[in-house]
Write a structure and sequence with these properties.
Layout: H1 3-10, E1 18-22, E2 34-40, E3 58-64, E4 67-73, H2 78-81, H3 88-97, E5 101-110, E6 120-127, H4 153-166, E7 170-177, H5 186-195, E8 199-201, H6 205-213, E9 217-227, H7 238-247, H8 249-261
Parallel strand pairs: 1-4, 1-5, 5-9, 6-7, 7-8
Antiparallel strand pairs: 2-3, 3-4, 5-8, 6-9
Helix pairs in contact: 1-3, 4-8
The structure holds hypoxanthine.
Hypoxanthine binds near residues 107, 225 and 228.
């Protein structure tokens, strides 16, 4: 059986319309899901087994407000294999299951002094600095996918409105993707700042490209776990990212729960 058949067999009535990818610091969103049903990625053909500490590997179906949702707790990063298409099959499965919206979350470094560690940013756009594409090898004219409005303006407006009504500061900005796994050099960060980046991270962009190719609308959030290299005296490390992500996780997940609950599709 393929993954979709397995999901259909276990949950014949389920028709989730919103999928959420949980990055570092966002896993607690899974605790806010009502009537959750868990699947291990190991039982879903095509779903990746992540190898990074802080990333699990399971799918959670359930409800949030009036929405049926599905969470991907753990993603494959390009830096694990060199391949940017590690999430292609899983996202296609979710689209085939009925998901129209992909909500992405990540941890990122801030390039803006007015967005300190612990703040939240909704992505307005991205810079695919690596120029890797998960669509290499695709055929057909759909591969020439427009990346204008890659991050859905209407969904972003709804998110900003909800943050505003809760009194939560939600910054807006451009996310630059560097493959990693090494952090950037201070010179690279100065360059990215000049190019118009507000945040930098090692994920999200490939999944946005995959999602746009299969017609899903994308809404994405960064939890800023550090100032980018050279911008402060902070030492950069994965354990620092995880510790900061953990510290800022509660307000981030609470906001996201409200955004998803209030989402008008
Ligand atoms: N750079 C790249 N990825 C990151 C960072 C960073 O500074 N912080 C968290 N993820």
């Amino acid at each position: 059986m393929n993954a979709l058949e397995i999901l259909h067999q276990r949950l014949p009535q389920a028709r989730p319309r919103v999928a959420v990818v949980l990055g570092s610091g966002w896993a607690e969103l899974a605790l806010k899901v009502k009537d959750p049903v868990h699947f291990s990625y190991a039982d879903l053909p095509g779903f990746p087994l992540p190898s990074v500490q802080g990333h699990a590997g399971d799918l959670v179906w359930g409800r949030m407000g009036d929405h049926e949702i599905v969470l991907l707790n753990g993603r494959k990063h390009t830096y694990e294999t060199g391949q940017p298409d590690g999430m292609k099959q899983s996202l296609r499965t979710l689209r085939d299951w009925g998901c129209e919206v992909l909500v992405q979350t990540n941890a990122a470094g801030s390039l803006q002094a007015h967005m300190p560690t612990g703040s939240l940013m909704v992505l307005t756009d991205h810079i695919n600095f690596s120029q890797h594409s998960p669509l290499i090898g695709e055929t057909g004219s759909e591969r020439f996918v427009s990346m204008i409005n890659a991050y859905d303006a209407e969904l972003r407006k709804q998110a900003l409105c909800i943050a505003n009504s809760l009194g939560v500061t939600l910054h807006q900005g451009v996310y630059a993707w560097c493959v990693g796994p090494q952090f950037e050099t201070p010179a690279e960060i100065r360059m990215l700042a000049r190019l118009g980046a507000d945040a930098v991270g090692m994920s999200t962009v490939p999944e946005t490209i995959i999602a746009r190719h299969i017609g899903m609308r994308v809404l994405a959030f960064s939890l800023l776990t550090n100032m980018a290299a050279g911008m402060s005296d902070e030492a950069l490390s994965h354990s620092h990212t995880l510790a900061q992500a953990q510290a800022a996780s509660e307000p981030a997940c609470s906001l996201l729960e409200r955004v998803i609950t209030g989402m008008e599709l």
